[in-house]
Amino acid sequence: MEGRLTQRASLRVSSAHRGCRPVPAYPFLYMAESFVQYSTQAVAPHRRVEFWNERASGVITDLQVEPDREIAFEASLKAVDFAGIGFAEAISTPTRVVHSHGLASRAPSPVYLIHLQRRGTCLNRQVHTEVLLEAGDFVLCDSTLPCELILGGDNSMLVLRIPQAVLKRRLPTPEIFINRHMSGRSGTSALVSKFVNLFWEQCQSDMETVAAERLADSICDMLATSFMDSSRQPLDGSTVQTLWKLRIRRFIDLHLGDPELVPATIANHFRVSPRYVHKIFASEDEAVSKYILRRRLEACHRSLTDGTQSAKSVSVIAFEWGFNSTTHFARVFRERYGLSPSELRRQHNLPHG
Prior knowledge:
alpha+beta; Jelly Rolls; Arc Repressor Mutant, subunit A; 2 domains; 9-stranded antiparallel sheet
């Protein structure tokens, strides 16, 4: 029957069950009994990408797979959450995985992701840098920032989902370690990589829940230690500035409707000086205040041409996106788009009041 859940503790996708829901919490003793699984094996080949993007990708974070059309896409995923930490192993044929700016901006709860390569290769791109991961290597990624992965070979990646507050208690400035290559062959990072891999294998068999939760907490400590140990090789200034710019842009995009959104309030939120906020944008043609204005105008343009918002007046839309003067809004809108907000609505056959 469509939508019927299997009675087994680990959920699998069958030809009669195209998706699966998280199992309810059980008072089970062993972690292996609370795993959730997805697979494309029983899904028709022409529906596999759609199925994976709709059902499985959200287990880690909002992702979209874009496999090579010449290769039949196959993938499976096994995941479990405990002690506030998520573990998920994704196995797939070669594919491109995208966490776009739009998907990143909708992230419901910010998490840090550890991408630990178990088999195959991954070209991991984030904050305008790229690193090549081979078996044992890992990187730290931020779910609130765009990311791209190019997975090669018979690929297996273990992804850890760590709430940002949890990691920041151990590592005060995780942002400076985003997309830094952590070797699985030498140093502290290699020890951590081997331990996490062994933990993942053991918790699928006979590890007690209490022990698994304690070890998951310890893994966060070990990861923080490995990153701090790697800080002996500092990032260059341009990478740090890029990270700050992405964080500030995300904050701006989430608060466009606040009329008090100015460089001073942004600086206060991040506990830096307004001068530093201006400096972050100094390398671009667009100052921070101009970025805020452009993003507000773009948001207004979308709302004005959205048929579902046709009942809203031009002034209401302007105020919703942070403008506090309709005269100012009309002037800057015409400067950017070459026509008034009402004229834009008339072009789209929408009410223009």
